[in-house]
User: What shape does this take?
Amino acid sequence: MEPEVASLLAELDAAAYVIDCAPNMNGAQILERAGHLVRTIRGARPSAPIVLVEDRRYGYAWVQDSARQRNEGNREALRTVFAELRESGVTDLAYIESERLLGSDYEEAMTDGSHPNDMGMTRYADAVTPVLRDLLE
Assistant: This one.
């Protein structure tokens, strides 16, 4: 979500943009950068749908408070930015909550408690596809 990356993404004539950066960020970075990223893309691509994807939970978050707090903080930050963008009139903007990404047995969908395995990536695709389908129809 760095400004330079936002500018580069805005150069792409994409049918849609799926922004799934939260796992590699913290809440403060999301609050600082996500709005700028969306506005930069929207400025260059006024009608391209943009989908913001929440941070999935770590497979070990149930036993490691710091991991759970990081996931929760990232999700809260992204929800805040999403609400602000919607309130400011940004359209064609969708949001995918973390619960939709990996399923109730999310631990089985990860290779290392963090990164999705083949099952996890299939579940991600199953979560994102209907959202994109609705936006692109």
In short: The chain has a mean pLDDT of 91. The chain has one domain: 3-136. The radius of gyration is 15 Å.
